[in-house]
Amino acid sequence: MRLSVLTYLLACCCAFGALARDFNIHCNSNLVAYWGQNSHGATNPGENQLPLDEYCDKEIGDVLVLSFLSEFNADGLHPPTLNLANSCLTTYDNSTLLHCPNIARAIDKCQKRGKAVILSLGGASGAYGFTDDIQAERYADVIWDMFLGGYSHNRPFDSTVLDGIDLDIEGGSSVGYVRFVQRLRERFIESPGRRFYVTAAPQCPYPDFYSGPILDNAYLDM
Predict the structure, then answer these.
(1) What class of enzyme is it (predicted)?
(2) Residue 186: pLDDT above 60?
(3) N or C: which end of the chain has fewer CB within 10 A?
């Protein structure tokens, strides 16, 4: 029996259970899971978070969010600070920048299983933000080169290319983020054969003090 397009989309969006499925942004049943802060281990000593790819194997989520890039700005003086709890503690020589080949392999495995893996900027703690649009634009280029489709001599996940960026902005100010998103989208066209996502996790009060301007003035996928 031939399914109609509508029926096929509904079937796609409702495919839960043991059946593995690729992430589909058009579905309303996607599950997003933040990973990296070892929240389970913090309350259960000796029971640390599992490696990222094990959650993909267990079909825990459709989008896995690496959490967090907790310190950033574009002053050019310091590399971005990744905090992935106990999952990666190694750095490049003479640098504070994390180098995580084990996580890179896990990301590759998750992506091959059809999962989207994105990096969250911000979080509840950390120091981050921009002083103006010029700084935000410059930092979008840094993110593109270090985590997405660009090139940097030192990339935390080596040649692995993430599927996008999440903004979980809970401090600082709202300055620059609209231009940050706009600049990322300008860089996305450099990889026409690949889809990149920009997402946001606004806080409950509406309009969100930090994310409100982004929601009003920049295009977000989720």
Answers:
(1) hydrolase
(2) yes
(3) N
**pLDDT-derived band at 180, boundaries 50, 70, 90:** very high
Which of the following is catalytic: 59, 170, 186, 190? Answer: 170
pLDDT of 11 higher than 90:
no
> What confidence tens digit (pLDDT) does each residue in 140-158 have?
999 999 999 999 999 999 9
Q: Measure the CA angle with vertex 209, ends 208 and 210; round to 5°.
A: 95
> CA 196 to CA 216: how far, in whole Å?
20
**Distance in angstroms (rounded) separating the CA atoms of residues 206 and 214:** 13
Closest C-alpha to 121, from 196, 76, 198, 68 = 68
Annotated catalytic, 170?
Answer: yes
Token digits of residue 39 = 């929240």
